[in-house]
Amino acid sequence: MHLSPDQVIYWQYGLFKLNATIAFTWALMLALTCGAWLITRKLSHGMQRSRWQNALEIVVTTIEAQISDVGLEQPRHYISFLGTLLLYVGAASICTIIPGYEPPTGSLSTTTALALCVLVAVPLFGVAEQGVKGYLASYTEPTWLMLPFNLISELSRTLALAVRLFGNMMSGAMIVAILLTITPFIFPVVMTLLGLLTGLVQAYIFFILAAVYIAAATRVRKRPDPTATS
After folding, report:
1. Which of 44, 88, 120, 141 yields a CA-CA distance of 20 to 30 A from 196?
2. What are φ and ψ of residue 18, in 5° steps?
């Protein structure tokens, strides 16, 4: 039993290693890319649409609705990033039903990379919405004494994103591996399905937290109008 797909080495030459994390990460990205291309290559603008297009529209509109519910006014500006995070983490969890598959989200390196993507995306979206001056000013509100605490908050929540996803994915895989050695086959199957549900929930939580952080960074603070009368 191994704790992380990083420990599964398929090929090594000197310092260069091809482990399960790298292999399944690229395989998953390739599968998502090819799937997106196959579904979107013949989109119809008329009334008659394929089942794949209907399914795609349901997924897109659902993601947009969730982004809008978080507080982002123009969800289509953020769906490419947030939707990709959701689909990647969700697909990584769904594929656990494939024998021999090692979820890349079971590696701390993968979850750290995803959390760093959020860390970079938050200020980018914030600057795009508020401008550099407006976004940087948010770190000193309500007083400049809050600057170090806000910076620590940025780093700590990134760490929390990475560790939370990694811990849940790794623990689920370990529980199934342990049960396979001490119990009949049917019980680990049930636990695998439960782990699949847990992985999808974690994908949704990761998506919502990323959306909340971006919503906080892009919130334009309206100054009171001095000409307004009470």
Report:
1. 120
2. -115, 100
In a domain, residue 45? The reply is no
pTM across the whole model: 0.79
Total tally of structural domains belonging to the chain: 1
Domain of 116 in residue numbering reads as 5-40+51-218
Q: Does residue 224 belong to any structural domain of this protein?
A: no
d(CA 78, CA 55): 20
pLDDT in tens, the chain (230 residues): 566 788 888 888 888 888 889 999 999 999 999 988 888 888 887 777 788 888 888 889 999 999 998 888 888 889 999 999 999 998 988 887 777 788 888 888 889 999 999 999 988 888 888 888 888 887 877 777 778 888 888 888 888 888 888 877 776 666 666 666 666 555 556 666 766 777 788 888 889 888 988 888 887 544 444 454 44
